[in-house]
Design a protein that fits this description.
Blueprint (H helix, E strand, L loop, with lengths): L2 H21 L8 H11 L5 E6 L3 E6 L7 E7 L26 H17 L7 E7 L9 H6 L8 E12 L2 E4 L3 E3 L1 E10 L3 E2 L9 H12 L2 H5 L6 E10 L5 E2 L2 E10 L2 H22 L2 E7 L5 E2 L2 H9 L10 E4 L9 H7 L2 E9 L20 H14 L5
Parallel strand pairs: 3-4, 3-5, 5-16, 6-15
Antiparallel strand pairs: 1-2, 2-4, 6-16, 7-14, 8-12, 8-13, 9-11, 10-12
C-alpha cells in the first residue's frame, strides 16, 4: 500500500466526515443519530458489524485470516453540552451541544481507516476490529459496557488516539507508563440545623462546618500523600442557603480527586471519609460523603507502545516528531480496554495557531487543524500494515 497516496486520496472525504459530524453533535448516551450515521458510512465495506453494543456502541470486524491475531482500533463519538461559538461554516447546528474534544476527528479517522483497510484487505497481516464507542465524556462511560457486551471477544490488542491542541500538527506524543489518572468524584452533604442569622447559637451551622471541611480537604495531598507521588483534590461546586439572614439546614460540596496509583487513590478516599467524620464531631453536624469511582488510570503496554511508536519515528510522510510527554490528570475510559487487553494510547497533534486551532479542549471555540488527522491515520495504518513484524 502506498500510504501517502491513500491518505491524500481520502483526506477530502475524511474532512467532510469530520465536518458533518461537527455540525450534528449529540451528548453522551443520546447518540442515536450519530450511531445510525456511522453505520451508514461502513455498512457496505464487507465488515461483520454489531450494533447497539453496550448501548450505542458499534463493533465492526474485518476478518482477514482466522490464523491471524486481531488488533482493535477505538474512536469515541459523543459530544459535550457546550455552545459552539466558532464562526465557521461547520459550526454545530444543535443549540448547546458541540464537539469540543475532537471526537468527531477520532470518528472520521476510524471510518477512513475502515474504508482504506477493507479496500486493501489482501495486504493485511492482522484482523482488524473498529470500535466506535459512545459516551466517553460522562460516567459510567461506554467502554466498560461495550466490553461487558463482548466488544473485545477475539481481540488481542487495542489501539487508540486522542487529538490534542496542546501539540502541533505533525507530532505524536505519548507517555511510556501512565497516560491518564484515576478520575474519581465525591459529594458531601453537611446536614445541620438551620435558623435565624441573628441567633446562630441555637443552630448547627452547616456553612461554618463545610467551610472548615473545605480547608481541611486541601491538606490531604500535602500531608497524607508522599511528595514522590502525584495527586490533586479540587472542589468544583458549593451550595448552601439562598437568603441573607437565614442559616440553612444543609450545605453541599462536590469535587474530584485524581491519582495515578491505586494506593494513593485509597489514601485520598480514606482521608476524605475521616475528615467528614471529624467535622461531624467538631461542629455537631452530620457530614455524609458519597464517593464515585470513575475511570481507572490509563497505562500503556510497553511492548505494544514501542511497536506503534517505532513505526513512525523514521520514514514517515506526515509524522514529523515523536516524543514522550508527562502523564495527564484527566480521565479517559479507554483505560478499560487497556485493562483487558494490551493497549496503546497516544496523542495526535492538531494545533495550528494560524488556523485558530489552539484553543483548549472543552472550550466554546475549540477547533482543530484537520491536517493533523493525516498524522493519526498514518500512525495507525503503519501499525496495522506491519503487524506481522511486531
Amino acid at each position: 500500500m502506498d500510504i501517502k497516496k491513500v491518505i491524500d486520496d481520502n483526506f477530502e472525504s475524511m474532512v467532510e466526515l469530520r465536518r458533518y459530524m461537527h455540525q450534528y453533535p449529540e451528548v453522551s448516551f443520546q447518540e442515536e443519530n450519530t450511531k445510525a450515521w456511522i453505520y451508514e458510512q461502513i455498512k457496505d465495506l464487507g465488515l461483520d458489524i454489531r450494533e447497539n453494543v453496550g448501548g450505542n456502541g458499534i463493533v465492526a470486524r474485518l476478518q482477514v485470516n482466522d490464523s491471524y491475531e486481531t488488533v482493535a482500533i477505538r474512536a469515541d463519538f459523543d459530544a459535550l453540552p457546550i455552545q459552539d461559538e466558532k464562526d465557521v461554516p461547520y459550526r454545530s447546528k444543535t443549540p448547546g451541544v458541540m464537539h469540543a474534544c475532537g471526537h468527531d476527528a477520532h470518528t472520521a479517522m476510524l471510518i477512513t481507516m475502515a474504508k482504506v483497510l477493507s479496500a486493501h484487505k489482501e495486504e493485511l497481516p492482522v484482523n482488524v476490529v473498529f470500535l466506535h464507542q459512545h459516551a466517553e465524556e460522562l460516567l459510567p462511560g461506554g467502554a466498560k459496557a461495550m466490553i461487558e457486551d463482548g466488544a473485545l471477544e477475539n481481540v488481542d490488542y487495542v489501539i487508540g488516539t486522542h487529538v490534542s491542541t496542546k501539540f502541533p500538527v505533525g507530532t505524536i506524543k505519548y507517555n511510556y507508563d501512565t497516560m491518564y489518572a484515576n478520575a474519581d468524584s465525591f459529594k458531601i452533604v453537611v446536614n445541620g440545623l438551620g435558623g435565624h442569622g441573628a441567633t446562630p447559637q441555637v443552630t448547627k451551622d452547616p456553612i461554618i462546618a463545610s467551610a472548615s471541611l473545605i480547608q481541611q480537604i486541601q491538606t490531604i495531598v500535602s500531608r497524607s500523600v508522599s511528595p514522590l507521588d502525584s495527586a490533586v483534590v479540587s472542589i468544583g461546586a458549593y451550595n448552601a442557603g439562598s437568603v441573607f439572614n437565614v442559616i440553612p439546614g444543609k450545605a453541599e460540596i462536590k469535587g474530584t480527586f485524581r491519582t495515578f496509583t491505586e494506593e494513593v487513590r485509597q489514601i485520598v478516599a480514606e482521608r476524605l471519609e475521616q475528615l467528614c467524620m471529624g467535622i461531624s464531631a467538631s461542629f455537631n453536624v452530620h457530614a455524609d460523603i458519597e464517593i464515585t469511582y470513575g475511570y481507572p488510570s490509563l497505562k500503556n503496554d510497553h511492548e505494544l507502545l514501542d511497536y506503534v511508536i517505532d513505526n513512525v519515528r523514521e520514514d514517515s510522510f506526515y509524522v514529523k516528531d515523536v516524543e514522550e510527554v508527562g502523564p495527564a490528570m484527566g480521565g479517559e475510559d479507554f483505560s478499560y480496554f487497556a485493562e483487558n487487553r494490551p493497549g496503546c494510547y497516544f496523542y495526535t497533534g492538531v494545533r495550528n495557531s494560524d488556523k485558530k486551532a489552539d484553543t483548549p479542549h472543552h472550550h466554546p471555540h475549540f477547533d482543530i487543524d484537520e491536517d493533523g488527522m493525516k498524522t493519526g491515520v498514518e500512525t495507525m495504518l503503519k501499525a496495522v500494515l506491519n503487524f506481522n513484524k511486531k
